Amino acid sequence: MSKVLLCNASELAAGEMKKVPNAEVGDICVYNLDGTFYATADLCTHATASLAEGDIDDDLITCPVHWGQFHIPSGKAVTFPCERHLRTYRVEVEGDEVYANLNAEAVEAADDANSPI
Ligand code: FES
After folding, report:
1. Which pTM value belongs to this model?
2. What are phi and psi of 116, to 5 degrees?
3. CATH assignment of the domain containing 45
4. Which end of the chain has a smaller Cβ tally under 10 Å, C or N?
């Protein structure tokens, strides 16, 4: 398993996100949605925008360039022009430290049958 530290939980308030550079997989965006942490690729699948510069709307991230949207827990593209899903990473919180497992998708994305979208 390839596990990387994304941030300290205490540095990311609910409703906030941040970009974390990673040499292996590229930039990762980590989100705090009401105390639950999620991680996706930071690069919008439509073009070259950083999603960390976009806006969180409930459990969606809105791209700052063309306003396409993704469902953060599953990475699914839900609003045009985004059509390709985002890579997600399973998040593990240990104490105050938030890690991404680079070899595992988020649980929701791994089980499409139970996905809300
Ligand atoms: S670059 Fe994100 S919607 Fe176009």
Report:
1. 0.90
2. -70, -15
3. 2.102.10.10
4. N
